[in-house]
Amino acid sequence: MGTRDPRRTEIPPGTLDMLILKTLSRSPMHGYGIAEHIHQMSEDVLEVEEGSLYPALQRLLIQGWVSAEWGQSENNRRARYYRLTASGRKQLERELSDFNRVIRAISRVIRTV
Amino acid sequence: MRIWRKLLFLFRQGKFDRDLEEEIRLHLEMKAQAGGGTEEAHYAAQRKFGNAILLREISRDLWEWRWLEDLAQDLRYALRMLRRNPGFATVALLTLALGIGANTAIFSVLNAVLIRELPVRQPEELLRVAPIGERGEDMAFSYPFFLALRKSQQVFSSVYAATGSDPMDLTTANGTQKANVVMVSSEYFSTLEVVPRLGRAITDDDNQIGKAHPVAVISDGFWQRHFARNRSILGQTIIISRQALTIIGVAPAGFFGDMVGVAPDVWAPVALEPQLTPGRNWLEVDYVTFLHVLGRLRPGLTERQARAGLAVQLKQIQNAAPASEFHNVVRLDTEPASRGLSELRQRFSQPLRLLMGIAALVLLLACANIANLLLARATARQKEIAVRLATGAPRRRILRQLITESLVLAGAGGLCGVLVGFWGSTMLVALVSSQGSPVVLNVGPDAHVLGFAVAASVVTGLLFGVGPAMRATRIDPVPALKGASGVARGDLRIGKVLVTAQVAACLLLLVGAGLLVRTLHNLRTFDAGFAREGILQVDFDPVAAEYQAGQFVPLYRRISERVDGLPGVRSSSFAFIGLVEGDAAGFCCLVAEGHEPKPKEDARVRFNIVMPRYFASTGMVLLAGRDFTASDFSSSGHPKSVILNETMAQNFFGQESPVGKHISKADANKLDYSMEVIGVAKDAKYEHLREAKTSVMYLLPLVGFFDGGVRHLYVRTVGDPGLAAAAVMREMKGIDPRLAIIGAATVRELIDRDVTQERLVTQLTGAFAGLALLLAATGLYGVISYAMARRTGEIGIRMALGAERGEVLWMVLREVLILTLMGVSLGLPAVFAGTRVISSLLFGLAATDPTTIAISMFLMFSVAALAGYVPARRAARTDPMEALRYE
């Protein structure tokens, strides 16, 4: 673990759920796809720890924000696809607006110093 | 919804696991492909992913069913531990089964007597109407008073009157036996909303004074016992007191009337009273009160509104009958009757609560013992626990494991306890039942009883489990693993504290039991005003032998002459009311010559109808005047001579001598007459042994005046009265073979029957105290043995240094006695506070009776010394060489 890519950053706590929900808001995806999507969209900055991805997905399933069903992957493998539910979409909006509010607040603090 | 998803997870756990696994495998493969598909990339991916098993565990934790799996694991583990320690498990289980069982048994009876509601529709709507007299006494209804109430009442949707349940001779085709007969007004079944399972109920038509239909409704139990549930019994005949009754209905199963503790066999219209109880005719007199009245509250009315309505109505009833005895009633009270009426409730509510408390205390003692056992076992298991702590098991997890073990133990104990409790409660009811008046109670377990048993088990398990579990997990794994035997001294201290508390509680129970034992002894020996020894009572029924008014007194005389002639008989006589049998009936409106009655004065006088020589034949003492003679029999229809008891003499004449003075009955019932006082008898207990002073007068039987009701023959003998019984009954049969003899018993036996309740409570308390003593002794023995085993090395050194065996013996015994002394000094204040609760149950001694306390303390110390002697002797026999070799 010592040879860590310095440009890669772990996802700030509490935002993983939001990132997953945001990713799924475009289209249903399997676990690997979600991790890869976050990785690419963040231009290789955000690294989703797989060890936290699946617990997070289970958490979202319990909350009923995502649903899961088995389907066919790109390379014809059986893969579990996660899909955003209606209540998940609402939750995403809530989390996004909370997040934006916090970010704006933080940047104001940083600017004024 | 979330719960639903979680439940789904629980039941399809295997599928979830497989799904997750497949998902993860796919993830890893895709990762590997992205990394170039080499084997190295594959391993790198797997490394990154971390421990797949742990991931699955975490994922499962999220679904929050972890605790259930842990619980199953804990349960399996607990059962295995119990199997591995059969000795401990057996002792603990036995203790718990007995402890919880005793509690459940007493609670079952308490539930049936004090808590359970009548098995009728909406029992909470039922109210008893209680006429309250001038001195606040709760009285009964006369039939005319009930009729007046029924005619004009508006607060009840319906209201009925019923007698208590009287055992009467009942003849069916199968012969004659005793049966419980209740006489009821026609509204009885409709008010209770009980519909006969067969036939019809008693109607208003059946219940008209003077033209009552001879009909009867029988109970389901009677139907089964005597008619084998034959459905064609409607229309068949049963005979009570020579009156044939036609069976018109069978009450539903489970219905036992409105009184808890008695099971009526037959219900008959109250208008049949003159026929069913010959010699009585109480329907049209307002001065004999023998009925209780229950009503079903009109929908929407509260009990308070009912009382207000009854108050208005009482005024109206009294105004309409200015010269009646209705005026003895000051107000009409009501009380909820949802749980039915019960003499049992009055008699047993305090003893039952007391026994409940005692049983709970014994269970606490048992808890202390099991806690001590667990503490000792925790020491033995400390290595196991240390290993688990060292390998990273959270303390909470081990704590939960240990408490689960305790709860499993308590649960198993509770299960056995319910069985013990069911058996015990049935036995209790059998013990309460006295000959001739069986108590019938439904003590079967219901929701209350089962809930109680579960609660008792859980509380018990936590009580004895939590402490030792906390203790066991509060160890430092390192020294424990090194094998140091130095357990915290605290272990022993807790054990000693528990034992001290046990001794204290045990002393309390010993004193309580001692007080009750001495009370029973006092009741059986104190001077009740009549002789307890050397007297035989024979009950017979001249009415059943078809004697008529006017023929009774000559019959009694003939019997007396024959019986007096028997060898060993000193004298014989007759009475209407048996010794300590009592009767609720009484005379009112008596006025002493030259005495103006004050208001609120106790004008009600109880009475007995006796033949001459009654006082000599029962060992009662005449203080002044003389006994009845032949010249005192009156032919005017009213008594002319009367003998008073001391209390009545004092109440009516104060310090003056009443002999030669007159007492007159002056009321509106055309019963005006005057009687001459010819003697004063020493007070004798009338209804029960504990009663306060009560006014009683003795009268001779007259033609048509109770002469047929006299049914008790008293024979005073020189030797054992029981031996004379056969000869006496032979003489009676010799006079008239038709004469039915109901029973014969010595007065000693009758008194023993009268103190059934006291004896039962005393025996149970005694048994509980014995159990407590055993538990405390076991506790002491255990703690001292354990302490000595730990001090073997020290004792070895002492003996090597020249300590005598006697010194070691005394050293150990001293420790036992100090513990006991601490317990006793803790227990004494508890005794002074606790025995006050039972002071109303005591008779002839104070709740702080020093003799009883001294004896109890002596007993406690003796048993403690005995319990301590075994480990002390073991310690004294320590071989110093051997003991030191172990160090």
What does this structure look like?
- The complex is a heterodimer of chains A (113) and B (887).
- Chain A has helices at residues 16-24, 31-41, 50-63, 86-112; strands at 9-10, 29-30, 46-47, 66-72, 78-84.
- With 113 residues, chain A is of the alpha+beta class.
- In chain A, strands 2-5-4 form a 3-stranded antiparallel sheet. A two-stranded parallel sheet of chain A has the order 1-3.
- In chain A, a hairpin with a 5-residue loop joins strand 4 and strand 5.
- In chain A, helix 1 packs across helix 2.
- In chain A, 26% of the residues are buried.
- With 887 residues, chain B is α+β, with helices and mostly antiparallel strands.
- Chain B has 4 domains: 2-64; 123-338, no CATH class; 347-524 and 756-886, no CATH class; 543-738, no CATH class.
- Chain B contains 27 helices and 22 strands.
- In chain B, strands 14, 15, 16, 17, 18, 19 and 20 form a 7-stranded mixed sheet that branches. In chain B, strands 3-4-9-6-8-7 form a 6-stranded mixed β-barrel.
- In chain B, helix 25 (805-834) runs antiparallel to helix 26 (850-876).
- The longest helix of chain B is centred in the middle third of the chain and has 38 residues, at 343-380.
- Chain B starts with a helix and ends with a helix.
- The model of chain B has no long low-confidence stretch (mean pLDDT 85).
- The chains are: A alpha+beta (113), B alpha+beta (887).
- The interface between A and B is medium-sized, with 21 and 23 residues.
